[in-house]
Amino acid sequence: MSDAQDTILESEPTAAIPAPPLPPDLLLVIFIHGFKGTDSTFVQFPQRLQHILSETIPNTVVECIVFPAYETKGDLNEAIVRFADWLTNLTVQREVANGSGGGAGKARIVLCGHSMGGLLAADALLEFVQTRPDSTAPLWPNIVACIAFDTPYLGLHPYVFKNSATQAASYVQSARSAFSAFQSFTSKSTTATTTASAPKAAITAPPMAAQTSAGAWQKWAPAAYAVGGALVAGAAAGTAYWKRDDIGVGYKWTADHMKYVGTLWDEGRLHKRLERLLAIERDMGVLFRTLYTFIPADPPTQPEPRMFIVLPKRGTTLAEHFLEAPNTLAQDEVQAHTGMFGSKTNDGYYELGLVTAQFVRDAVAASKESAGDTGNEGTTAATADEVRMGHPGDSSAHPQTSPQPAHTEEDLML
């Protein structure tokens, strides 16, 4: 071979060996039910959110997982410990299974708590932050957002009790009217029958049975009215009978709710928790948002809008972290609260999903930017934003901002 040929061969570049593809990022969205909730509290909401996020966050494995049902009684701190243990075990398992290089912390985690579940999520986050080896140590599990749905961070709205009791009283009054109508009917029927066949003395005897029934009614209403109404008042009371499960339910639900977390309803501690959550968002970049049910005013019967939770003072930084989740289908605050994740019980269901998806994408994008992870473009406003909250490039949102979905509602139905 000539020297010229040797020179040519030596100058030819060696073909580069392609680097193995990096494993996809991992995003875990954890749903935590609230007081008396179950594994089915969120219905299909987690699956639909997973679909949206998988389609709009590139090169990322997305899992929406519901924390198994837990006892909503006793000490809430016990539930927090159980949840923290469960989450750490889950994170290790998923990070190993995903094969993500870079060690612990590759899995980004979003906590989504409904009602009491929001308190559990917040307190677990605070516990993870507080138990780090030192203030400069990274947060693990790598929680990037804490999103609450109708969580009473500042307590239950006082009108929840008032409106629930009023509704129960209206049901009772309907049943009483039906019962009175039945008494009048049976009294006339009995009188007519007795007139034809009984001696006069029997006709003038005091109606003891009717008096006893009325007395029992007064004594046991509203708890026992349903069965009595259905048995004795025909079709009129039948309507009331079908309302039997609603009698006192709203009031009892809220009373039990308060009882379970009675030790937490200390105003100073409530505000302290929120101050710490805002500080963690500011110093560590963990996004914090609360979506609360909002029933618009309906004059004249409901001249004011209704909420399940107490809201922060308007114009404060904290208030900017609370956003309306309107629901015009719910009859009262408890129905709006418990039906938040049903498309048939909440006409704001699709908007709720889109707003939640945007919060998650904002948190993931901020986490990647903070970590200097620019390998993936993450979520881009031009192609992935179904919802625009605030100004471009600004993840903060105003409570009254109405998101404008670029995708159709069918995105959440797939």
TrEMBL record:
Q: Which residues form the DUF676 domain?
A: 28-159
Region of interest (Disordered), residue spans:
367-414
> Per its UniProt record, what Pfam families does this chain match?
DUF676
Name the domain of life this protein comes from: Eukaryota
* Protein's name according to its UniProt entry: DUF676 domain-containing protein
The family classification in the record reads:
Belongs to the putative lipase ROG1 family.
Organism listed in the record: Rhodofomes roseus
PANTHER family in UniProt = DUF676 DOMAIN-CONTAINING PROTEIN, EXPRESSED PROTEIN
Q: Which residues form the signal peptide?
A: none
